[in-house]
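Duplicate of earlier report; Heme exporter protein C input re-posted below.
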Amino acid sequence: MSIWEYANPVKFIRTTDRLMPYLAVGAVICLVSGLVWGFFFTPDDYRQGSTVKIIYLHVPAALMAINAWIMMLVASLVWIVRRHHVSALAARAAAPVGAVMTVIALATGAIWGQPMWGTWWVWDPRLTSFLILFLFYLGYIALWEAIEDDDTAADLTSILCLVGSVFAILSRYAVLFWNQGLHQGASLSLDKEEHVADVYSNPLYVSIAGFVLLFIALVFLRTQTEIRARRARALIARERLT
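Output:
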């Protein structure tokens, strides 16, 4: 069985219909257990106090904000190379979800930064690149809405996605590129000195799993909606011609 079979809208809808209940239940279980575990059953950090617990929202949201754009990049490349409409619609469906994840990451970062840095915002390299990434999300969504022809919109948004991917990469690795940034290093790292203690990382893994499952479920649901909306527009256009 080839993965390209799911480029068929009917097969995609049938398959995702079967998967979505499991994804939704898994997302709820992981999110509730991870957040409750992290916020109520982990100790305060000796330096950051209770503010360290913001990582259970901030880190998963930041990871999904970046990876959502990467998923859009892959889907856009599939559209450019193979012209599969489902991939273009999946990229369109993922954009609002990724934008919301970016807002959550920026907001929780500000909540953490105020007591740690004494200010809600600094023009730190990672924060700045994340803000630019959010603007790219808004531009991507607006471009889809501004162009009536779906194929033309898919072509132009795919190009925009390629450009925006630079900032997705910068958002992920800005701390490594610019050592003078205030933003701390990665909470989850192969470096034992940077990696958070197990008492914090274990519930964080569960929260991340919940965010991943939630993202996949929402993208499947929104892609189905985009497919049906495209069908409806095609039927309306056909009726007008007749």
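Confidence is low (pLDDT under 50) at residues 189-193.

Merging into the original ticket.
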